[in-house]
Write a structure and sequence with these properties.
By secondary structure, the protein is α/β, with parallel strands linked by helices. The chain has eleven helices and twelve strands. The strands form two sheets. The chain has an eight-stranded mixed beta sheet with strand order 6-7-8-3-9-10-12-11, with helices on both faces.
């Protein structure tokens, strides 16, 4: 199975990805269980597209992104970047591949070293990968600062001298330093003031167009995901339950969990807001250390049947692509 956007060769292919963490207890730290943070995720990511990965906290979104970059080692599965399996690369090969895969972290206040100047932070990836001469690196840092909307004269300032939005721009400049093809962005605007969130979102959209970037956008902010993404994948308890084109997922959601998520998006129109029907799910998210049998969503699903409690649904195509539209996949017996 491959939930892909088109028939061209994908930049990244994730195949049956598992990331499990052992639960250890007692004086001897014996393993007594396993947290199945990511439990069989597969999708493709094509050059120049943005895939939004959404879901509740703890569903495995960020763990998926970290495993794609090999910042976490997968338990099982394959992660192919430009045809090479990232999960099986040695240390030297992995370091070389990381030049083409970068990350923008959620918190701009903790992701920048407070003891380093902005110039040192941005130039560090160039030094690590031995790109250019010292003079070329200085020119590249000034170019990157202008690209993300910062004055190059700030090069010798420290992170504490910048606002949150400016720090996130520094994080973007650092990620762009080596000329990557793929950027994994973890909640890139959630730690920022509302007044500057739109500026960072528009900057990321502009950079994608100028540089031909490919994004994996991990986010709770469904409005931002709809604005930036070409496709949207919805995760629940370690698995993808729906994936398809942005408009298809937002306008005609097929999985009951997706419908519940979208019903929580507030609207600025008071009349529409008063008439909007919220879908309130019962119960809590089950523990990833002990997921329910059958469909993992069935304990909270308003349309669950006996089949849902016993049979695990597979991710299948419900709507075949028409023209440039990507296929619409869903893991639900009743879709």
């Amino acid at each position: 199975m491959s939930a892909s956007a088109d028939t061209g060769a994908p930049l990244m292919e994730v195949r049956d990805l598992h990331v499990h963490f052992p639960i250890r207890r007692g004086l001897l730290r014996r393993q007594t269980g396993t947290v199945r943070a990511v439990d069989g995720v597969s999708f493709d990511l094509h050059r120049g597209e943005t895939l939004g990965l959404v879901g509740e906290s703890g569903c495995g979104k960020l763990t998926t992104g970290l495993a794609m970059l090999r910042l976490l080692d997968p338990t099982a599965g394959r992660v192919l970047f430009a045809g090479r399996d990232v999960a099986s690369l040695g240390e030297r090969e992995l370091r070389a591949s990381r030049r083409h895969m970068q990350m923008v972290f959620q918190d701009p206040y903790s992701s920048l070293n407070p003891r380093m100047t902005v110039g040192s932070i941005i130039v560090e990836p160039l030094a690590v990968h031995r790109i250019g001469t010292p003079a070329e690196r200085r020119d590249r840092v000034a170019e990157l600062m202008r690209l993300v909307g910062l004055d190059p004269s700030f090069i010798n300032r420290y992170p504490h001298e910048f606002s949150g939005g400016q720090r996130q721009r520094v994080g973007l400049a650092r990620a762009l330093a080596t000329g990557p093809a793929l950027i994994v962005a973890d909640e890139p605007i959630s730690a920022l003031d509302v007044s500057i969130q739109a500026q960072v979102v528009n900057l990321m959209a502009d950079l994608k167009g100028k540089l031909g970037l490919t994004y994996l956008m991990v986010s709770h902010d469904l409005s931002m995901v709809r604005y930036l993404s070409d496709r949207v994948a919805v995760m629940y308890l370690g698995r993808i339950v729906e994936i398809g084109g942005r408009d298809a997922v937002f306008d005609t959601p097929l999985h009951p969990y997706t419908r519940a998520l979208l019903s929580a998006i507030p609207t600025p129109d008071p009349r529409r807001e008063r008439g909007r029907r919220r879908i309130v799910l019962k119960g809590d998210v089950p523990s990833p250390a002990n997921p329910p049998g059958g469909c993992r969503f069935h304990p909270r699903c308003p349309i669950a049947t006996a089949e849902c409690r016993t049979t695990d649904p597979v991710l299948r195509v419900i709507a075949a692509p028409s023209g440039p539209s990507p296929p619409h996949w869903v893991a639900c017996h009743h879709a």
